[in-house]
Design a protein that fits this description.
The structure holds 2 protein chains of 2 kinds. Chain A is of the alpha/beta class. Chain A contains 10 helices and 15 strands. Chain A is elongated. By secondary structure, chain B is α/β, with parallel strands linked by helices. Chain B has a 9-stranded mixed β-sheet with strand order 9-8-7-10-6-1-4-5-11, sandwiched between helices. Chain B has a two-stranded antiparallel ribbon with strand order 2-3.
Chain lengths: 328, 282
């Protein structure tokens, strides 16, 4: 008498589907599906990918549905909203979990608002009961607090999961590849009302892919000292980044910002120079394997997150560190 | 009756929030606590102020005026706020300030979006609706999307620059990959990010003049929304302060050079591939 319940893990691009964040989303969605007695579907926007069935199966998806984009251009946000809203309105899954990204921040609340279904962004963890209740904890006040919410009302319950909030957990034992079904991504009925006239041109490597990140903060004191951050990044073989005050002051491009409102990074090594350690910033880098803090204030909260610390002024210490790295 | 374009009606949706810097100062000193209700910050010393992203949305309107566009500006908020907060919007150049009273003390994001959209519809519509990218208390960023969907307007998020030519809107968005420029035709909803730059302060004269501006008070019951549209979909159960305890190994030697060498050696001990050979291109 009851229709089959599903929980959907959703990846908005092929690049995302093949990244660790998709595995985090699949894991979070599976942990919701189990108590609900629901099957797990992985919905991917992109082109055909033979590897998706294997990845999906490994993380417990019963099926993989590919919404195929036209050609190699990514669909616009309007097209994504229309296609996802149509898909979920028909199927009415219990919950849909997304990886929070720049595009998810725009698309997920619109899909939920179009369906008038509950939505929570910045999700750190989520749980479901056998009765169908869904609750979740989200970061608030830039990470200074965590807020626990009950999601109520008609499913689907939309959750946007922060990167690195959940550790990927493959299913136990030998997994069977999931069946992959493809269909065309429908065009929005009203056409794309927003036209992209100039795409972003990323200068240098992507911050979120970097294995070594060197960030500068307000403690540098003077914009000219940011050159020391760039020089240290080069000497370490990493990428230069910044905390939000430097971006707000216009020293550094927004694309270089690490934090809750910027990029969430997960490098092997994160070097924070002149950064106090505000929660907003730490939400973007606390998943690094090793954090090194360089700050002249020994009481700075960054030292509570750091594995290694040096109490020193950037202007004096960074040239010495660069020399040491170059074997001088 | 000249040949000039008709004024563009701009509505900025604004929210009053606890000062996030004050909250953070309590948090980093380990003194942030939650009140007896389990849902709000206990510190009475945390001041309330206009969400900084919403101030930047107002600044975006002032820049359109600076560029010669005739814009009417309505600032609308949901909930009870202090008079100072509304006066600031008036001093910055709002022609009208609207406060929507709703029976629920803390309506959820979709309900707030529904109320704001209903007000905009009932007051003759808008050409452009601006919101901050998110409120700095709940960090959700759902309201701009909810307003856009309720009004069936297109949404452009994360604006760092807004330009207008006739009814053609050009928005530069701050994306993690750099700036993206998009165009759309009014009406539209745009959310504004901090990259727009520091908002201006009202002059003392404007602050005094703004005292005469009385906010328009609207009860949500007058907006013609049914119970289903106003049913909460998120219920806040509790707010907690996450605990941080660290174990930092401090490196210190008799000179900067020796401290630097000791640090490099520790990094290599930890198996980190630093320096030569690991450099990405670019």
């Amino acid at each position: 008498m009851s229709t089959k319940k599903t929980v959907v893990a959703c990846s908005l691009s092929m690049r995302e589907a093949r990244s660790e964040s998709a595995q985090e989303v699949l894991t979070a969605a599976r942990l919701l599906a189990e108590p609900l007695g629901a099957s797990l579907t992985w919905l991917v926007v992109g082109d055909a990918g033979d590897d998706l069935g294997e990845i999906g199966g490994r993380f417990g998806a019963g099926s993989v549905e590919v919404l195929r984009q036209r050609g190699d251009t990514l669909p616009g946000e309007e097209a994504l909203v229309a296609a996802l809203a149509a898909a979920f309105e028909q199927e009415r899954p219990q919950a849909v979990v997304f990886a929070q990204s720049f595009i998810a921040r725009s698309v997920v609340p619109r899909v939920a608002a179009r369906l008038r279904s509950p939505v929570l962004m910045n999700v750190l963890s989520a749980a479901a009961s056998a009765g169908g209740a869904v609750s979740a904890t989200a970061s608030a006040f830039g990470g200074d607090t965590h807020a626990r919410y009950d999601l109520v009302g008609d499913p689907p319950h939309f959750l946007s999961l922060l990167p690195r909030a959940v550790s990927p957990l493959p299913v136990a034992g030998l997994a069977r590849p999931a069946q992959v079904v493809e269909r065309e991504l429908p065009a929005p009925a009203e056409g794309d009302r927003v036209r992209v006239v100039e795409r972003p041109r990323l200068l240098g490597p992507r911050l979120e892919d970097a294995t070594i990140v060197v960030s500068g903060g307000r403690g540098l004191g003077d914009p000219s000292r940011y050159q020391l951050i760039e020089a240290l990044a080069e000497a370490l073989g990493g990428v230069a980044a910044a905390s939000r005050p430097l971006v707000d002051e216009g020293w550094v491009a927004a694309s270089r910002q690490v934090g809750l409102t910027g990029t969430v990074v997960q490098p092997e090594l994160y070097v924070a120079v002149g950064i106090s350690g505000a929660s907003q910033h730490m939400a973007g880098c606390s998943a690094a394997r090793v954090i090194v803090a360089i700050n002249n204030d020994e009481k700075a909260p960054i030292f509570r997150y750091a594995r290694l610390g040096v109490v020193a002024d950037a202007a004096g210490f960074l040239p010495a560190l660069i020399d040491a790295l170059k074997g001088r | 009756m000249g040949s000039s374009e008709p004024a563009v009606r701009i509505v900025v949706c604004a929210k009053e929030v606890p000062d996030p810097d004050a909250v953070n100062a309590y948090a980093v000193s380990g003194r942030l606590t939650i009140g007896e209700d389990g849902k709000t910050i206990a510190q009475a010393a945390v001041p309330l102020l206009m969400n900084a992203y919403d101030e930047q949305a107002i600044e975006a309107v002032l820049r359109l005026r600076d560029a010669g566009h005739e814009c009417s500006l309505t600032v609308v908020t949901v909930g009870t706020t202090r008079p100072e907060y509304l006066r600031k919007a008036g001093a910055l150049g709002a022609d009208e300030i609207v406060q929507i009273h709703h029976k629920a003390a803390h309506p959820d994001t979709l309900v707030v979006g529904t109320l704001l959209a209903a007000y905009i519809r009932s007051s003759g519509g808008a050409d452009l609706v601006l919101c901050g990218r998110q409120a700095s208390d709940d960090d959700q960023g759902v309201v701009p999307a909810a307003v856009a969907e309720e009004l069936s307007f297109p949404l452009v998020t994360m604006a760092r620059e807004i330009r207008l030519v006739g009814r053609q809107l050009t928005v530069v968005r701050a994306t993690p990959d750099g700036d993206e420029t998009v165009e759309c035709t009014l009406p539209a909803v745009v959310s504004v990010s901090s990259e727009l730059g520091t908002p201006r302060m009202p002059t003392a004269r404007d602050v005094i003049a703004a005292r005469a501006k009385k906010p328009t008070l609207i009860d949500s019951a007058a907006l013609g929304l049914d119970d289903r549209a106003l049913a909460p979909r998120l219920i806040l159960r509790s707010l907690v302060v996450p605990q941080k305890t660290g174990s930092c190994e401090f490196i210190e030697a008799d000179s900067s050079a020796n401290t630097a060498r000791a640090l490099v050696n520790r990094l290599r001990d930890l198996g980190l591939a630093i320096g030569s050979g690991a450099s990405p291109s670019g």
